[in-house]
What does this fold into?
Amino acid sequence: MKKTYKHLSLFERQRLFQWYHYEKKSIREIGRLLGRSHSTISREIKRNMSDYYVPTYYPNPAHIDYKVRMKKRVLRGRLKNAQVKNYVIEKLKLGWTPQIISGRLKYFKEADYICHESIYQYIYLEAPELISYLPHKHKRRRKKYPKRKYKTKISQKTYISERPESVNNRTEPGHWESDSVESKGWKTALNVVVERKTRLTHVTKLSSKKALTTQHALIKRLSVYPERFINSITYDNGSENAYHLKINEKLRCESFFCQPYHSWEKGSVEQVNGLIRRYLPKGTDFNNVSAAQLMEIENALNNRPRKCLGYKTPFESYNEIAGALLT
It folds into this structure.
């Protein structure tokens, strides 16, 4: 069982003063009476020795000094190691989050490990110019709030509520999520399709958001995979997904739908859409985005380590299971 350590309280310091100053008890005896190590008592006295009238230990000034040290500890500099600092800055500029950077260091030992909290503290306390490389670029750190849960209703469509458990828990590969990212002016769009288990992603520019265009894009991007890697596609209720049955017929897969206005139910593709918006912010006219640029973005997403994959990349995860699919 992991041992925990608690700092000395004001009451303990007052008892220490009484026993040490007036009753002349030994440091080892005081440690036994307080249930503390004698080395803790020794350090406490040496660190907080005062010289008011005669050099001795006083509890109230010692406790005040302790509180000051705790405040200063929060402000201590982070990333003192130059190699780690350079690694963190380099990966932040590539679009990696502090959590991804920390996970990559922990599992792949590319530099000394540092936790994501220390990276955030370094950015917000010492290097605010790096805030612009964070996903949401908040000027101040925000508290996390619990997600709301909604009940899924059943209707004539095949909704996520009827999706097999093997799809929901991501134990089986080959289940995809599809969504559209709109361009400025709503005339063009991107089709984004993400495989749930490996997070493998494909991004395709659409000439319009019509169902036929989306159908052709999905069939073209997914038909290159073996049938065992195309089992289902989950959509929202947008009109661009009206031809899902034709897609099912061509790819020999199933289709599932989110509840209306519950696009968060296909969270994998929604999260990737947020990453794409870091490259193509809202207000971008996709007519001005070339196929080469989209391929760069797609490669960046598929080479981006993910916490949910044990800090492997989607390409690495897919390559691990690709051989099993072929046997």
Notes: The longest helix spans residues 59-74. The two ends are 44 Å apart (CA to CA).
